[in-house]
Structure to design on (139 residues):
């Protein structure tokens, strides 16, 4: 039975990657464009920590969505979420349910998972790997 489930694990990983990326991108669009609604504190200045975070969330989220450069981008985004949690959530309370940091923790560890597993099925990285290296440094 588990052998049958194991066969589908790359696809389940891809579904997790896609859903996490879409949710992550929504945080970026909220901070950059006020969509689907503006953030509670208002629109952040573009060259602030929140503005830079919004760009990472939108662009990095898109790269994760399509599975391009998944491991290095996931490493960067996991770090962003760790910083977000410890700088903005943890000082309010040590309990994630009270400080609003649940999503930051989950995103951090989901992205860390992608650092170690790669993107799963249906990814640009997988298509590039199938095509083989085009340059000596891609081997």
């Amino acid at each position: 039975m588990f052998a049958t489930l194991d066969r589908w694990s790359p696809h389940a990983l891809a579904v997790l990657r896609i859903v996490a990326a879409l949710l992550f991108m929504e945080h970026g669009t909220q901070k950059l464009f006020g969509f689907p609604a503006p953030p509670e504190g208002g629109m952040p200045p573009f060259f602030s920590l929140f503005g830079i975070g919004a760009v990472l969330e939108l662009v990095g989220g898109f790269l994760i969505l399509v599975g391009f450069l998944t491991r290095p981008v996931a490493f960067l985004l996991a770090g962003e979420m760790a910083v977000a949690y410890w700088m903005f959530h943890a000082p309010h309370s040590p309990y994630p349910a009270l400080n609003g940091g649940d999503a930051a923790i989950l995103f951090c560890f989901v992205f860390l998972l992608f650092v170690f597993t790669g993107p799963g099925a249906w990814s640009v990285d997988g298509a590039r790997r199938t095509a083989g290296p085009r340059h000596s440094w891609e081997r």
